[in-house]
Amino acid sequence: MTDKPYKQPEFETLHLHASQDVGPTTNALPNSIYATTGFTFNDAQHAADFFSLKAFGNIYSRIGNSTFDVFEKRTAALEGGISALATSPGRATQFMAIAIIAGAGDNIVSSSNLYGGMLCQLDPEDFRAAIDENTKAIFFESMGNPTYIVVDISALAQVAHSNGIPLIVDNTFGIGVCGHGTTIAGVIVDSGKFDWSRSGKFPSFTKLSEGYHGFKFWDAFGPATFVVKVLVEVQRDLGATMGPFTAFLLLQGPETMSPRAERHCANALALARFLERHSKVSRAMYVGLPSHPSHALANRFFREGQYMGGRENIAVGSRVFDALKLASNLANVGGAKTLVIHPATTTHQQLNEEELNWRMLNASKSESN
């Protein structure tokens, strides 16, 4: 959107128009794919300013490219953040978001309701009690996989900020039209609301940087410091960079995400209701159902309930799975097609019987998504 709109664009409008500008030299629309390795400088001083962070622009695609710059800005707009950084896999975003704030001897207080999470989530006061002088963040998934437990994000934010540490949320299951702001899952989005200077626990953000000859990140970038530091101190060296072709494709998806996600959620709710009523299904796990333990929190934090799980004896479940014609037996989430999988014998098979029971994934159960 080149010109300032007459009012703040709605969420659905941002999916299509956020960060979209006509190409400055080609007048191309949509944005072009820059399959470029390196970029030239105007002169020696221009190059020196880029490398010393006195000015920002493209150096090499590992730390900047015009195609994923558009994708990052659109994602930040959709998630209500101040800036974003696109990476190759979601695991890289998790590592980099933590590596930039934690060092040897530090710790992260994390929910047990992570990938392979349990039904019994921790109370916010349990998080508070676990924080010590070396704690650098609270980390959790906005919706646990595969039990779909939703945490009270507002309560945990209060706990984190009252202790001078940031909140890191893996929003894999809530991304896009159904999601909550400030996500990490392939893209790091910084809300810009955490005051790194006030905290006092992150001197590398506020003190002189040896790697940049006395440069102070907070003085230069203020609320946008987090993403800048991740970019120039971690991604620059690790190279877990999203490619321009990937960024271009990811820009196409959000353009129709709102109507697609609404239909996905409606279909999932209809299927969940059917399974909940079925005599041979012991339990249907879907946050859109009032019977789900996180139903109230899901209605509070998400636009629509999403993803579901039906449970039945594994022998029976396997026969059902194998007889399905349209659904695929697939270890993935977030796609347009229906999938089924049995977590206890696939994605969570490393867990023992006690751990599976603890996480509400008894080995005699099966699940569909």
From TrEMBL:
BP-aspect Gene Ontology terms: cysteine biosynthetic process from serine; L-homocysteine biosynthetic process; transsulfuration
Q: Superkingdom of this entry's organism? A: Eukaryota
Its required cofactor(s), as named, are: pyridoxal 5'-phosphate
One family from Pfam that matches here is: Cys_Met_Meta_PP
One MF annotation (Gene Ontology) recorded for this entry: O-acetylhomoserine aminocarboxypropyltransferase activity
Keywords from the named record? Pyridoxal phosphate, Transferase
N6-(pyridoxal phosphate)lysine modifications at: K207
Give the CC-aspect GO terms: cytoplasm
**Family assignment from sequence similarity:** Belongs to the trans-sulfuration enzymes family.
PANTHER family linked: HOMOCYSTEINE/CYSTEINE SYNTHASE, HOMOCYSTEINE_CYSTEINE SYNTHASE
Task: Tell me the protein's name.
Answer: O-acetylhomoserine (Thiol)-lyase
